Amino acid sequence: MKQRTKKLLIIIPTVVILVLGGALVAITAASQAKDDLPALSDGVEPTPEDTEPITDAPPETEAPDPSSKGLSFESLGNGSCLVSGLGTCTDSELLLPLESPDGELVVGIADYAFRGETGVRSVTLTPAIASIGDYAFYGSGLRYIDIPAETVDIGEYAFCGCYSLTEIRVSADNPTYSDLSGVLFNKDETVIICYPAGRVENFYTISSKVEEIRTMAFYNCRAIKLVNYVG
User: Fold this and answer.
1) Which pLDDT band holds residue 30 (cuts at 50, 70, 90)?
2) What is the DSSP track for 139-197?
3) DSSP for 69-116?
4) What is the pLDDT of residues 73-98, one digit of tens each?
5) For residues 136 and 113, is the Cβ–Cβ distance under 8 A?
6) How confident is the model at residue 65, as a pLDDT?
7) pLDDT per residue over 115-152, tens digit each?
8) 3-state secondary structure of 123
9) How far, in Å, CA of 192 to CA of 185, rounded?
């Protein structure tokens, strides 16, 4: 009996020590695991954006330049140039570029640039186009054109012989030119510059304000049978 009691006195403390040791290990591990967790600031929970993986944004791409390609240019030697012809361009609706392939600013259309080019149906001018040369579209297939406020110099016979041309539209802000129902005038409407040859009306009335009709203003306007001047 004494021997059994002695064994129990040895075993019980051992078990207690083992139990305490295991508990201590568990507490230490839990504390370390807690330390490894990311800290939250002021009790605010992370939003979905905070937990989503960071991905690289797709690279930005430049929009393609819609300007007509292949046009030829004439340098003015001062960092600017004129469109001098179609070159290798096959577009029927021309959109003039702001710069030539050499980086020069396109400021005008040269004399005879599109003369006889029957495949040209329209042309869009940039605000940098200050001039349109003599005979620039003579005999071309131009159907209409918008003259911006910045185009202040239109050469002689620029739109003569354009048998498909029905209207020349001018910005109201243009200081030099205007239009009345698609007919090109000077700003104060005292000079008729060009009556589009493709118009189908057979009768035209000239306002009493008109003091001058430019040479060839009605060149080959085949539909007109009668012109009435009310002045």
Assistant:
1) very low
2) T----EEEE-TT--EE-TTTTTT-TT--EEEE-TT-SSEEEETTEEEETTS-EEEE--T
3) SS-EEEE-SSSEEEEEE-TT---SEEE--SB-TTS-EEEEE-TTTTTT
4) 999 999 999 999 999 999 999 999 99
5) yes
6) 83
7) 999 999 999 999 999 999 999 999 999 999 999 999 99
8) strand
9) 5
Q: Which of left, alpha, beta for 103 (phi over 0: left; psi -120 to 50: alpha)?
A: left
Write down the pLDDT at residue 19.
Answer: 46
Q: Percent of the chain having pLDDT more than 70? A: 74
Residue recorded with tokens 């960071």 = 54
DSSP state of 222: T
What integer best gives the mean pLDDT of the chain?
Answer: 85
Two structure tokens written together for 224: 């007109």
* Residue 106: count of CB within 10 angstroms of its CB: 21
Q: Which two structure tokens, joined as six digits, stand for 132?
A: 């349109």
Paired tokens of 201? 């009306």
Residues in the chain: 231
Tokens (6 digits) for 2: 């004494």
Q: Is 50 exceeded by the pLDDT of residue 15?
A: no
Q: Assign residue 43 a region: left if phi > 0, alpha if psi is -120 to 50, beta otherwise?
A: left
Distance of CA 130 to the CA centre of its chain: 20
Q: DSSP 3-state helix, strand, coil percentages of the chain (rounded to 5)?
A: 15, 25, 60
Instruction: Report whether pLDDT(1) > 90.
Output: no
HSE-CB for 47 with a 13 A CA cutoff: 1
Give the type of residue at 170: V
